[in-house]
Structures are given as structure tokens and as C-alpha cells.
Fold these 2 entries.
Entry 1:
Amino acid sequence: MSSERDPSRRQIVQGALAASALAAVAHANRGSTGAASPAILSRAMAHELPPLPYADNALDPIISAKTISFHYGKHHKAYVDNLNGLLKDLPELGALSLEDLIKKVAGDTSKAGVFNNAAQIWNHTFYWKSLSPKGGGKPTGKVLDRINASFGDFDKFKEAFATAAKTQFGSGWAWLVANGDKLEVVKTPNAETPLTQGKKCLLTIDVWEHAYYLDFQNKRPDYVTAVIEKLLNWEFAAANLG
Ligand code: MN
């Protein structure tokens, strides 16, 4: 009799697989090494591409569905796939949360690939949330109070944020961050993120060419101005400020 037609054997096999999966999850939670199946272990711990917080055409015409299809569907997804591939050979890093992983490998040149892909996953997820089809305009409440105290007024903040985004040489990011009670505008190159500098991120603008080239070609300043005026998600900034 073949095993496929033998219900008792099938049940035993399924039971063993379930037990193995449970053991792998328990094992991952402990963050130790042991005899769990590597295949099941890696599936249990894989980093995932978070869903977009809006439809792919929600930011049109400033950021088109075509840009989103490449930027989210190809670039952001590739960072996730690349990181999961790299972590297969680094089981000691596999159980860390994305934020803990970024902080752990920051500055370690032997882990530059892990840092770049992990930080780019985090930066992009933060960028999508920094934008909203109902965004733009002027914040209120605590965020506006802190902006006024830190920059003088909202127009001076906008000028500082736009300047950082326009003048970041090459690929990178412009950020509004909280450094203690003070709000600051900073820019970071490539995958670098204020997350590793002890600063609380409030908003970001991606200024890699892939963020704007299909919609604005070489006119980065026009993309930056449109994002600041029409898309910045001040509710997200307020939630981050706390
Ligand atoms: Mn990007």
C-alpha cells in the first residue's frame, strides 16, 4: 500500500511537520541555535514587504501609479528579498526585529549589505507613511508649536526641509526629526537613517532618482515642492512625535 492512501501514515507525517514548525517558531523566539529545520526557521522569521497604506494611484499626479509600481513593487520589494537572502547565512541576526537589526549592524563595514537593505526597508516603509493623498497644508497642535519653537515659523521650516531635500548630493533622504524637544531637519546619504543617531523620525522624503524620475525627470526641486505642499502626512508626524 502506498503511503498516500494510508491515512494513519499521512496523519503521522502531518503531525510531525506541525510539531517541527512549532518547534522552529519557539526556537526563533528564543533566538538560540539548535536542530530546527533551517527551511522552516527562515520562513518563520522572514522580513516582509509591508502593504502600501493607500492605493497605488492615490498620490497621482504628484507620484504616479507607474512610479509606485516600480518604487514599491520593485525597489522596496527587492530590499526585502535581498535582506532575507543575506540573513540565510547569518542565523545569529535572523531573530532580530528590523529596527534592532539596523542598529546592531550600523557602522559594521563587514555587514554593509545587511545594513543597506535593512535600512532601506525601514526608510521606505516610513516614507510611504510620510505621504498621504489628504496630506500637505499646515500641521496643528504640538507639531506646529515645536516647529515654530525650533525653526521660527512654518515657512522657515518648509524652506529648510526643501533645501535639505534639494541639496542632498546623489541618492538619499531628507528628514524631520525630534532631537529631544528640538525639531531638526537632517539629510542622509544612500541608506543612512537618523534611526541610528538616537533621533526620533517624524517625516521623510526619498530623494533617490527612482522616487521622482518617471514623473519629474531631472526636476527634483519640483518633486520636493509638490510633496511638501500636497502630500506630507502631518497626522503621521504627530503620532511619531507622541
Ligand atoms: Mn526609494
Note: The domain at 46-242 is CATH 3.55.40.20 (minor pseudopilin epsh fold).
Entry 2:
Amino acid sequence: MSDFTPRYLADYRAAYFSITRVDLTFELEHQKTRVTNQMHFTRNKAHNLPLVLDGEQVTLVSVKLDGEILASTEYQVDDHSLTLAVDRDDFQLEIVTEINPADNTALEGLFKSGDAYCTQCEAEGFRRISYYLDRPDVMATFTTKVIADKRQCPHLLSNGNKIAAGNLANGKHFVQWHDPFPKPSYLFALVAGDFEVLRDQYLTMSGRDVALEIFVDKGNINKAHHAMASLKRAMAWDEQTFGLEYDLDIYMIVAVDFFNMGAMENKGLNVFNSKYVLADETSATDVDYFNVEAVIGHEYFHNWTGNRVTCRDWFQLSLKEGLTVFRDQQFSADMHSAAVTRIQNVRVLRSQQFAEDAGPMAHPIRPEKVIEMNNFYTLTVYEKGAEVIRMLHTILGKEKFRQGLDLYFSRFDGMAVTCDDFINAMADATGTDLEQFKLWYSQSGTPLLTVSEYYDEQNAQYHLTIAQSNNEQPALHIPVGIELITSEQQNDAHLLALTKAKQSWTFEGVKEKPVLALLTDFTAPVKTNFPQSDQALACIMTRADDEFCRWDAGQKLLTTYITRVMKQPQMSLPDSLYQVFESILSADTAAAFKAEQLTLPSFNELVDSIEAVNPIALLDAIETVKRSLAKQLAPLFLKQYQASAQAGYSHDGIAIGKRALKNVCLSYLVTLDNHEHLLSQQYQSANNMTDTLAALSCAAAYPSQELNTLMADFAIKWSDNTLVMDKWFALQASINNDTIFDKLSDLMAHPLFSLKNPNRARAVIAAFTQNNPRYFHCASGRGYQFLIEQLVLLNDINPQVASRLITPLIQFKSLDAKRQSMIKEQLVKLQQHDKLAKDLQEKVDAALA
Ligand code: PHE
Ligand code: ZN
């Protein structure tokens, strides 16, 4: 089987052997680490098939079967496996391998982040450490002994509890760990290095005293307090909300600067991208604070949804990720404004997941065919997966959802299971038929709801018809929340179960034609086709009980005018639009919510719903609408801007909301002539990173003489703070003028730049492609070319990072013909590159198919 052969869900077979116990010893050395792996195997059922272990990029040193060294003729090794014929049913295998952490730039398996050693095994990284049955349904108890130089690596960590430690010859020492919970290899972790530790403790609801430890680079300990507080909140929240309690005596989190993803839920030893741990008042934005709490929560929640109950195979990834994202979203909603949290979830779906679901890599939340598993850690599996869980929560209601989850844990604790197992537990516990609902797991694409209404005045009846369509696929069970708004005091709210291709409802006793607020709280991840008049939208904005619908109506109104202006750039906006904005600005609503109402739909939210779109024309239209609103309502924006200023700095919800509102007002004001002084004023007087960064990003969007001075000042102030310098690189890459391509070359040559550091690589490349669409999509094609050049370099360094960065280049379906052909030309070049990693190959092939 070649590396590029797809794997299919339909081909799943249980493993032929089990591994019950693993005893690992790591002798850590920079370029030559030796791993001794003793495994206890048992044969599953009667068969005489050979044992085939996974292994990649490891050097095999020796194999022992029940203590006897095997000759190299007694097994076969190729570049991804080791095959051994054994006739025993119960045996011990000891495999010694050598690996090279120092040269591991892919950051999978054992690698170095600065001077520290650390591992990343999900999804299939353990095979880069040793030969193993590297699949999630093979679960073993692990004992791990870590040996390293005591001065370089005073802290030696692995999963579970510390069971032994001591000094060795030559300045070395060791620590041995034991994890009593059987786990798949993807949850294995090891960390060794010199850290500062923030320590705390948590008493669980049943009285277990848990030691909490956060390991950070020296000098960063004061930036770990928010993460610690977030962890304790997450632990308490999971007890209160789901009755779920932590199960070991110690919970460790390590922050590293080199990491491909956000963080990893390894049992008892989470490894985090430092950007989701470190935060303090001066260097972190409000969004950073929010994200740290959310990711800390996410990884903690995995201890039950992912670790105690894990996935049978990687096609089931959404079993743990969709459910855990739903849990972290609920946690955030409970800690902050539920409405604003929900609005932000929906923005992510609409701007990114819908595009993925309409693009060449579209897949169901439970994919059926995979070439490179790392390519399936997607917005679909995570965010749409969370929406599917949320729909269940909506359909069943909070109590029944909880009963279903309780049954799921009691049935499957300690097991590796499937998405169907999960749904069946929810169905059985609540007596609900969820067979049709299961289709959400096998359909890709975003369903479209087409809505029509008819009011029958004589009979006081309101008729509502909803049709669903998604590429001719069978009808889904879609929960649709609605509100009927009339002049009555109370709006009439309903939860409809749309289960047919087309379905109608009649509401009786409706005394006047109601205004329909559709998809309250965004009950389903769908698109809608339901043209509503400006007046109806304005009515929803002020009268709907559901805050999401109030916000969404405003977005719809804006979308209408942005698209009109795009087709007719000279048109003037109607007074009614200005009035709507005027009432938003003067209303007495919570600042955070108001900030969301004032934020225009983004380029990415709009681009894939317009056919053959010229991205520059779309950007111009967004800009025109923004500038017109700013011009017309300048005094109000200014007033709101000034009224939202705060003397001191605090970090409560009110203060955060005010900053958001102030900065959205700033973003309008800077579109006007002679308002640049606001930027430098705000930059100079800011006492927190949110305000500083807001000033700088406005400055980058509307570059003036002063921009370079401000950027230089910022760089001097923060040159020794890695995470803040990532922000600086990202700002530079988003500068909106035609010096950008020289700027990009300068950035890549900057002494602090390295493609080997994923955060830094993303700070330049993703910031350019995402935050600088005018130049990414510029007519010369230079933006596309720039991305391809970086991908070619990254392909050899870190294919996983390369593969994530290619996204904007494969989602070209809605762009105009000229841009499509420029992009395809670039993709063909990439496709022909020899030694393209399968991560990129899979995506490029799909895009060009
Ligand atoms: N399982 C991690 C999470 O969602 C994500 C991850 C996947 C991290 C693969 C590293 C590698 O929390
Ligand atoms: Zn996760």
C-alpha cells in the first residue's frame, strides 16, 4: 500500500492483536534519542495473520520477542511498517528505535521547541517514536521512564502519576510515570526541559485533591495566571453542568512556542501552543484572554469526551471534537455574553466552514475517505460537528441531553466507540427516534432553506412553508426556531421540526400579518433563502426576543446593500439604512452586542455567496458602505467612541464590551479624511494591547505617513515578546498598499522570522492571505504566487502547516474566471513539484480534479 492510497471508513476492521501494557524508556539526546518500547500483546480471536506495526522515520535498532533477540531475517521493515510472524497468543515484544528530535521540523512525534523536548502524537505521530499499533482502538496502560541531562532538563514529564525518580551517572537523572487509564497511543505525551511552574490545586466535587501545574518558559510565570484561573473555572463548570469530575491526582499543562495546532489533550499532560496559555494585561488582547479560556476549557473537557471515551477510528473524529467544541462553546457562553458568543460562533461557520463545505475538500462531519488524516482536523469536523451536537441539544432539551450523555458515559467509559454509538445512547436514554438525524453525519454541504409565507387575514391564519435542499441528498432532520412578531405584547416562539423536503405549518389565531424571525439562536447550520423587506428586517432588529435574530437581521440588511453597491457603485444608500444605524448607535444596548451589530459582514462571509465575484469589487463595496455610514453618522460614531473610553484598565465583561465598541467606532472614523490623529492618539495613550492593536490595525488598513513610525515604535517595545511580535508580523503583512510585496520579502528576511516556527509562519502568510484580501487577490496574481512560493518551502519543513495555509487557494469556485485560471495555473505548478507531501497533494489534487 502506497502512502497515497486512500483509506475508507467502510474498510474498518478490528485490530488482530491487542496491546495491554506498554513500558517505555526514553534516553533523550538532541539528535539521537533512544526509545525502548516493551509491549505486551495478545492475539484477538483465532487467526494466523502476522503482526504489522506502524512506524515512520524511525531507525530500528533491535527487536526482542519474549526476551530473545530476533535476527533481521525474522521480520520485515519498510518505510511505514514492521511485519513479524508470531505464533504465540500472548507475548512480549521489545523494540528499540532511534529518532532525531532536533531535526524534526514537522513537529509530529518527538521534537524540540527551543531547548525543550516535547511530543505530538495525534493523529498518527506515535509511529514516529516507535513501532506500534498506532490506531485509537488499541488501548494500553503506559509506564514511561524519561532519562535526560539534569541541568538541561530538570523537569521530566509524562502522562499519569510520578512513580519513581532518581539521579544517574554523567549528570543525568530520570523520572518514571504511570498512567492507570488505558489509552490509545495518540494520547501519549512526554515533555522534558527547563521551565518555571505555576502551581495550584483543585478539590473535586467528590473530594479528590488535584495538583494543577502549568509549565512555562522562564520569565513567563506571571502570564500563566489567567490560564490557571480558566482551568479551575472549567473544572467547576464540568462538574456543575455535566457531573463530570477529574480523575487523576495531577493535571499538567505545558506551554511551548513550536506547535502546529492550538493544543493537545494528552492524558494528564496537555501540551499547548503558548499563545493559548500566556496572557497578561499589557501584552494580551481581550480576544487572547477569551481564547485562552476557551482552549484551556476545550482540552480539559476532552478528559471525558475524547479520553475516557475515545474514537474507534479516525473517521469518528467528530465524536470527540464536535462534542468537545460544543462543550467549550457552552462554557464560554456561560462565562460571558451568551448572545455575543453565539454570534461569534456563527461568524466562524459562515466565513470559513460554509466555504469548506462548498469547496473541493468538502466532507461530512464523519468523513468516509481520507488520504492524510491531518487534513481532516477541519472546521467541518470541529465547528459543524459542534452544530450537530447543538441541534441534538435543541431537539432533546437540556435535561434529556444530559440523560443521553450520562448513558453514553456509563455505556462506553474506557472504550473506543463510534458516532453511531453516541447517537444511539442519546436515542435510547430519551426514547427519541434519531435515525433521520444520523444523516447529518454522512452528508456534506450546507443545506439551503427556502422559506415562503402566506397570511390569511380572514381566518387569522399564518401559513409557513420551508423547503430544504442540499445537492439532491435525502432530507435531514433540521430544528428550526422561529418567532412571530406582531403588535401583540408577546412574540410567539416555536421550535419546528423540519424533516421533509418541503413542509408547511399553519398558525391559528394570528390577528395580523406577523414578521417572521427565522432560525432563532441559529438552531441549524444552514443557509436561508427568504427575502425580507427592509422594514421587516428593521422590525426584527428591534422587536425580536432572540438576540441572535436581532443581530442577524442587521447583517442581512447590510449584505443586501453591499451586494447592491457592488453591482451599482454609484448608488446612494437609502435613508432607512442610516436610520437603522442611527438607532443602533443611540440605543441603550450592551456595548459588546452593539459592537457586533456595528460590525459589517466580512469579505469572507460574503464572498462565497456571490457568483463569479471580482474580489476587489466586493472589497470596494464593503468599503463604500462603511465610509458612507461613517460620513453620515460621524458625530454619533465620534460620540460613541469618546463615551466608550475608560480611564483605567479592567478586564470584566463591561470593560471588554466597551473596548470592542470603541474600536469598532474607530474603524469607521478612520475611513474619513482627517481622522488619522485618532489613531496616533489612541496608540500613544493606550494602556492595554486591545486598544494598541486596534489603532495599529486601522493604521495598516489605511496606511498613512505615520504608520511606519508607529510600527517601529511597537517593534522596539515588544522585541523580546514572541507572541506580541507575532502580532507585529501579522500587522505588517496586512498593510493595505502596494508596497506590500516588498514588505513581505523584508519580513521573510527579518532576523526574527522563521518558517520553522508555525506561529511566525502563520503570522506572515495567513495574515496576508486572510487580512489583506485586496493584495492576495490583486489582478496581477502576485498574491497567489507569493502563497505558492511559501508552500513550496513549507512542504519540506512542515507539511501540516503548509496544508492548512493552502485553504484560500483551493476555495476559488465563486471567484471570477480570470482569477480562477490564475489560481489553477499556480496549483498546477505545485502539483508538479516533486516530493510533494501527501498533505498538500491530497488538497491540490482535489482542487484540480
Ligand atoms: N486534539 C486537539 C484538540 O482539538 C487538536 C490537535 C490535533 C492537536 C492534532 C494536535 C494535533 O484539542
Ligand atoms: Zn479537541
Note: The pocket of zinc ion (ligand 2) is lined by residues 298, 302, 321, 324 (CB under 6 Å).
